[in-house]
Amino acid sequence: MQTTIVTQVEAAKMGLRNFYALCKPRVTALIVFTAIIGMLMASPGMVSWQILLASTVGIAFASGAAAAFNCLIEHKIDAMMARTRARPLATGQVSHMETLLFASVLGGAGLTILYTWVNPLTMWLTLATFVGYAVIYTVFLKPATPMNIVIGGASGAMPPILGWAAVNNAVSPEALVMFLIIFAWTPPHFWALALYRREEYAKVGMPMLPVTHGEQFTLLHILLYTVILVLVSFMPYSLGMSGWLYLASAIVLNVVFMYYVIGLYRHYSDALAKTTFKYSILYLSLIFAALLLDHYLV
Ligand code: HEM
Ligand SMILES: CC(C)=CCC/C(C)=C/CC/C(C)=C/COP(=O)(O)OP(=O)(O)O
Question: Membrane-crossing residues (predicted)?
């Protein structure tokens, strides 16, 4: 009897772990972080905790559901790539029906929370973001063009706009600047990974830039988008949205990013591409943290 209960508890824990993994938790965490900064930047003072809580939960649920839909649509290619083969759908630990139900309930709950406790504008923008990633990017762009992530990156860049809209019920130039930072950051972020994973993408027939146009062309594009990122990252300061603390942080973060990207362009290695990819995540986390610190301290 006791053994049966223990087994059932273990099975339930395993089930929860699988559904959690479907939400791509670490990516969703950074997405939600940028959304929260969008909320906090939207007001000179403190934002009401009810709006903060409802928006965070609503956006997190919608983002997790979008990731789960992506896993559902891509389970076959996920099963063929070393990086993704342990995902619960690829291993068969959760079924297609369970995933569909989970993603629908989670996404529906997220949108309902946003509509009811935040505002309809945020709900509609989040729905558009959801469709942009789960349908436009995953179904149409990803298998069709090496520019998939440039266009699809618009969905990943939306969270600060969602956060801003949650607080102000509007979209403003400051929110667009934060959008632009993530939008310009996405190509170096993804192509650094796609370079050292290019054989896997080629094997599953995904037309990622290193597969279709080769190493040197991809490196040049990483470099060009990083230059755009550097320019865009100074906009919060030049528009008077942020002060010296942000400026100093952006300079340091940009110098390091350019150092990696130029190094990669001159002497490519998988190890340096991996370091650049990892640094891209640190870069985005810190530049958004700097926006926030500057907002409250300077
Ligand atoms: C179309 C846009 C994007 C593409 C194609 C992309 C692609 C990827 C890929 C392929 C990985 C590796 C995941 C893994 O190994 O499981 C990854 C990791 C990651 N991405 Fe992105 N990404 C995009 C946008 C974003 C955005 C907008 C954010 C956050 C604001 C983000 C944050 C992260 C984080 C935190 C990781 C590390 C995950 C981990 O360590 O498990 N990405 N990205
Ligand atoms: C608020 C809201 C609805 C946000 C949705 C936007 C969203 C979840 C963007 C995530 C971007 C992402 C995980 C890209 C991974 O690329 P990939 O899917 O090509 O990577 P993979 O090869 O690891 O599956």
Answer: 27-45, 51-73, 94-115, 121-140, 147-165, 177-196, 217-237, 243-265, 277-297
- Model confidence, pTM: 0.96
- Got the DSSP string for 79-139? HHSTTTTTSHHHHTSS-HHHHHHHHHHHHHHHHHHIIIII-HHHHHHHHHHHHIIIIIIII
Q: Which ligand is nearest to the CA of 70?
A: 2
Closest ligand to Cα 284: 1
Mean pLDDT taken over the chain: 96
Three-state DSSP class for residue 297: helix
DSSP 8-state code for residue 140: I
Do both 259 and 153 map to the same domain? Answer: no
Residue 166 and residue 281 share a domain: no
Separation of alpha carbons 196 and 200, rounded Å: 9
pLDDT of 229 over the 90 cut: yes
The answer to whether residues 124 and 182 belong to one domain is no
The residue range of the domain holding 240 is: 172-298
CB of 162 sitting under 6 A from ligand 1:
no
Q: How far is the CA of 71 from the centre of ligand 1 (A)?
A: 14
Closest-approaching ligand to the CA atom of 278:
1
pLDDT digits (tens, 9 = 90+) for 132-156: 999 999 999 999 999 999 999 999 9
ipTM: 0.95
Estimate to the nearest angstrom the gap between the alpha carbon of 13 and the chain centroid.
Answer: 26
Residue 147 confidence (pLDDT): 95
Question: Which amino acid is residue 216, in one-letter code?
Answer: Q
Does ligand 1 come within 6 angstroms of the Cβ of 149? yes
Instruction: Please indicate, yes or no, whether residues 177 and 159 belong to a single structural domain of this protein.
Output: no
Q: Spell out which residues line ligand 2, taking CB within 6 angstroms.
A: 24, 27, 31, 59, 62-63, 66-67, 70, 74, 84, 126, 129-130, 133, 142, 155-156, 159
